[in-house]
Amino acid sequence: MKDASNPPVTTEGADHPLKRLREFTEARIGLGRYGAGLPTAASLDFAEAHARARDAVHSSFEAQVIAVTLEEAGYETIAVESRAQDRATYLRRPDLGRKLSDRSRERAAAIPGGPFDLVVVVADGLSATAVNAHGAAVATGLLAALPGDWNVAPVVVATGARVALSDPIGEALDAKIALILIGERPGLSAANSLGAYLTFGPRTGRSDADRNCVSNIRPGGLRPEIAGKKLAGLIVRAAEARTVRHAAEGRCRRPDRRRRLWPAADRLRPFQSLQTVWRRRFSESLPGTGAARPAGDDLPGGLFPQPRGKSARPPFEAVLRQHI
Amino acid sequence: MSQESLKTLLAEASPARSGDFLAGVTAESQEARVKAQRRLADTGLAEILQTPLIDPETDEVQRLILDQHDREAYRPIAGFSVGDLRDWLLSDEATSEAIAALKWALTPEMVAAVSKICRNQDLIAIARKRPVVTKFRTTVGLPGRLSVRIQPNHPTDDAKGVAASILDGLAFGCGDAVIGINPATDSPSAMRRLLELIEELRLRLDCPVQSCVLAHVTTAIDCMSRGAPVDLVFQSIAGSEKANSSFGINLAMLKEAQDAAKSLNRGTIGQDVMYFETGQGAALSADAHFGIDQQTMEARAYAVARAFDPLLVNTVVGFIGPEYLYDGKEITRAGLEDHFCGKLLGVPMGVDVCYTNHAEADQDDMDNLLTLLGVAGVNFVMGVPGSDDIMLNYQSTSYHDAAYVRRALGLKPAPEFEAWLREVGVFDGEGFLLPEASRGDAGLIARSKLLEAAE
């Protein structure tokens, strides 16, 4: 399913002999040609999709508006920024987007009431368009669905953020769990997709192998109106399973065993491990979304697109670390 | 010269790119960069040869680079500086044969060094003189020819979706490099299913192409041991042992895969069975660059490639993102450098002319680079329906683009494939795409029986 706002691939070449096969793929097949050139409509369709994605990458983050919306809904917020001072630096230096500015760290560390069970971070990422559109709605849906006895930190609205910025944020606030809602790298079919990345024990230096994510939150994907509640349910179940396992097995110190503390994948299907997401390169429809083409955060997708061996970690985990 | 000073010199002499800034290895100013280029131009090839950038004791790629070096072939240029080498390569003395004779004399560091003091036109003019020809069922890399990989990716590996994209590509005269699918699922069964799909199509159409499913090398080895129809074995490679190990591979595994694929004896006119992909920034992203600039690291990956007689090597130049190559200018430069370095080292270079949506690049930049590479004699480029890879989520060159550059520069497909295209009525007698109205492709589609399968 495509966004209503997305144009059809093209109507040019509607009598193309491959027309009947378009139902099997969203690939831009059977476009027709003039000489070797693309028909005008197909050329402009592509240009429009790309322009939309470019605009999303460079759109300005309405952090204030999001903060006001959240506060009107009854949730405290604090604003932080990464060390990437502007968009050009943000794109060139993902390492800076993973670090809090000194001022922000101090501000977060000064928040009373910790330790917290959970901190929710709403962040621009690679598509402020996505977060502006439904970041606040997903966050409020999530917060409203959490158990009343959870000690939840003020919502952090983060500018210039990569996924891993949730580590120093969680650390400064002394939170047990960090969930970051972040704009994903825009694709040609969707420029308004949010990702949700969950980290238990967020601390600077966590590997992305330690995170789990739900991708493709957008109209036409996992719908923002229901995403928050869904995420809350997944977080609570995951946390419970973790607590039960901790109680049964004692504290797990080996990082390589951390993943096993997650509930069985079949019960938490949308909450796939990053590795699984990586392996599928955001290519598989998430249940209930009907979307054939979820975009990834800023995951590279597959320059070297294969997992290492049959069951092991993805080979490009290091790239993941760089990119997220 | 010490290892550190050579690394620094190479890095500071590198034309600016974001990945080197990210790694913190660039020159301090533009003037400092040119001064480094002057010093590099005056540096002897012998000094470079004597200064391995990574300790060979700990890095099998470094050992391979040293083992590959042929002292006999090197003798005529042993007294050259980097600047001398550039001048000679540009000179009329440097014929195709003369450059080819240096294949095992040149090391990755030497060609990386010389590329750093070349302008784009030098990179084109020199690479043009160094064709690298390889064979399996088609002959790839002959002068005056440009091959295309059909990249019919699909988010769920849907057989009909993949087949539809393949047919669209064949009707544009693409596919003579390879029909190569990035699978959504990396498993022996998924790989086999896709291989059999292409195999059936190939046999039904009696089409001289080779197939590849770009799964991990271990998956391919597994598939071959179960008798799957594997033509080419794919693997991503990089320029250090540590970076390769981040891909879950080492040289011995590549050798095992090459031997296994050759033993299947599936090539009709040659047995070049490997397909490698590389890209600037890969080693840095795995923190396996050892303080070496990304372009030099990339050239080192070609030492790995040429050890296994690949049919195709492809630098996926704009894929990795703007933190490595920021914009159209950097992507263009890197594509030309990679092609140049690969060719001088005797590697059958193709280029995935591509970009992501967060890079400062667009279709115009890709048109430029594609045209430049066509002039430079690139062996092959990608063909993605409408430039939009719906699985990997990035933009590459399209079937249309391939047809454009062949027409604009008078380039033809691989000869075996050209003959087939004429026979099926897609190409005219001169070897160029017929007007669409003549609908040679309709016959092709009929023969594929794909529409019937879709009913």
UniProtKB/TrEMBL annotation, chain A:
Its EC number is 4.3.1.7. The lineage of its organism: Bacteria, Pseudomonadati, Pseudomonadota, Alphaproteobacteria, Hyphomicrobiales. It comes from Jiella pelagia. The basic unit is a heterodimer which dimerizes to form tetramers. The heterotetramers trimerize; 6 large subunits form a core ring with 6 small subunits projecting outwards. The gene is eutC. It catalyses: ethanolamine = acetaldehyde + NH4(+). It comes from the Bacteria. Pathway: Amine and polyamine degradation; ethanolamine degradation. Belongs to the EutC family. It is an enzyme of class 4 (lyase). This is Ethanolamine ammonia-lyase small subunit. Binds between the large and small subunits.
Automatic annotation (TrEMBL), chain B:
It is found in: Bacterial microcompartment. Its main location: other. Transmembrane segments: none annotated. It catalyses: ethanolamine = acetaldehyde + NH4(+). Adenosylcob(III)alamin binds at residues 183, 235, 285, 391. It is an enzyme of class 4 (lyase). Pathway: Amine and polyamine degradation; ethanolamine degradation. Its cofactor is adenosylcob(III)alamin. Catalyzes the deamination of various vicinal amino-alcohols to oxo compounds. Allows this organism to utilize ethanolamine as the sole source of nitrogen and carbon in the presence of vitamin B12. Belongs to the EutB family. PANTHER family: ETHANOLAMINE AMMONIA-LYASE HEAVY CHAIN, ETHANOLAMINE AMMONIA-LYASE LARGE SUBUNIT. The basic unit is a heterodimer which dimerizes to form tetramers. The heterotetramers trimerize; 6 large subunits form a core ring with 6 small subunits projecting outwards. This is Ethanolamine ammonia-lyase large subunit.
